[in-house]
Design brief:
13 strands; alpha+beta; single chain; six-stranded mixed β-sheet; 9% strand; 702 residues
Length: 702
Amino acid sequence: MSIQERFPQAIPAETERIVSGILPAGSVCRLLGERGEQLVNEEALLELYHREGRGGINPIILSFVSILQFLEDVPDRQAAEMAVLRMDWKYALRQELTWEGFHYADLCNFRKRLREGGQTYLIFDQLLEYLRNEGYLKSKRQRTDATHVLAHIEHLSRLELVWETIRVAYGSVVSADAAWVLQRIPSSFSSNHSQRRSDYRLSKAQQEQEMQNAGQDGYWLLGQVTQHGSARLKALPEMALLERVLAEQFEPPGADRVTVKARVKGSACGDVIVSPHDTEARYSRKNVSTEWEGYKAQVTESVDGPVTFITDIGPHSAIETDNQALTTIQQRLEGRDLRPDQQYVDRAYCNGATIRASQQHQIDLRGSVAQTGNKPPGFRLEDFEIDLEQRIARCPQGNTATIFAPSQQPDVAFHVRFGHHCQTCPVRSLCTQEMRGRSLEISPYHAELSQRRQLQRDPDYLRDLHARARIESTISELTRRHGLRHCRYRGKPRITLQMVLAAIALNLKRLARYLNPDPVRLSLSFSMMGNLFDFCAVQFFNKVLKVALPDRLALRLWLPQRRLQRRQRHARIGVAFPWLLLQQPPDKGLPLHRNRAHIRRRLQDRLHHRLDIAVVMWQLTRQQFVSHHTDSIQVGQRCRPSPRQHLRRHVAQRPASVRRLSRSQRQPEVQHPRHTLLGHEYIARLQIAVDDPVPVQVLQRL
């Protein structure tokens, strides 16, 4: 297949005239349509095609449709339809509005061409090069974290796994040499293993019997192919898969027995195949509540720069620890010339080996390491004076070790024992309970670990580690909006391309929002602060309760105008929060999806505690506050219980003096129709008077 038509140099006039006016400024389609040839190099993609042959779809068009597909998280069929029906997609592809599109199978063929050509990261690398040349991407500091990815397979029991593996192997033999199957394989075997089977409703005894029968059938089929099959049948990958699954699930049959003894459940763990349809997927467990069959996605993004971008992403084995994957991640970053000076990771990545390996690559691995044991402070390994060159160790009490010998264990360099010095030590009960005295195991990376544990005591270093936390929001966005949690395909090469396309879509979305930020909306989300206040309520919270949103997040808490129209009681919000919103220019804000839950909890906790104090103080001074346009103002908080239950709980949580004071001395309220209680938002009501000045005594007490 060859490419006979190049990517258009400009957007068609009719498409630009109709779509340009209605397309949002921060749309990815606008970015692709205006800067498409700068983001993706067409010449590099044309190398994947032949110079002669039937004409195909331009690879730039297929690349952009694949990116928009993962931006919208839609399948191939729907993506091909949207390329025809969506005007914004045609704007990005620089096509006429009457363009009829292409067949959805061309997307699959394009991904296959990228994989077979070894160019899985081609478009991703080109985008990163463009971002770096334009100054948007800074590689000085980066952060890395991982998340679990579910494979595109069905969960199988051990018996179903053996059945399905035999069925797949038998089907491959039939496809390769049907005549040999008719000659060597009986019809009873074909009837048992030509269709899928399930162990549903089988008793435990029946499952054990069926497991032995399945093992016998599997070894029998493997023996027939090995002894009487051709070289073509022996070389089938399905036969190698069958041999491995049988070796993992059964003991090899002996010469003097016919039955096959199944392994004890749990003995075949670790690098064990869980499905014959995806041989690279593995079972893993992170904690009590998180277990999955699939892969791990290692994500790395930049820290510096005007906006953060993903610099590396890729699937790794589910049984591979994070510290084992770190070397591969750093090698990929060096291949893109994006080696970071500082790389922020969590404790799973950071140990002595990774710290030393990162130093050899001139990377400062910023993370914390685990403490040594559960000894009290002052008696831990880092509290001992250890000189590896002189092989001398002194305990905190000044005693010198009697034994300092090399170790044969791979993860231990030296064994240290203090012996008789511990017999008369006054603090022996705090140091050790062993009869032979305190013993130490010195790691081969003792110098790196000791230095890092000493560094972890510095508050500035711990504060600097907070830069790693924001990658959690990136992973959340990838999994929730771009389908990273579930694999669409099977096999690590296909899954790699899926993750790469999702990362490209996220990078383009961030770039488009940065180049064309949305206008600031002077309104707050109803779910963020509950019921919204008007001008006088903001005065009360700013001056009295000292409540203010963080500067970076204030500009991004917005509510769509159509939701404002549905709630008529929030009509005056546009001018209600000048102190909260007009604190930073628009480019300092964070995207809407980030840290919403954190800010809501933080603000609600602040309001909850300060409202109790405010009620007491205002009742003590006997000040009545009335709004300039209503008789009452309600401060709301989203909660699951009913309004009556939540009000009762809120009052019960106050101190006894506060409850008596607020119940007995609270002035009666006048209910206004615009402040009718709705659903499950309610905390308390305060009567506020704008006419009265804020008492100095209240400000001093607050």
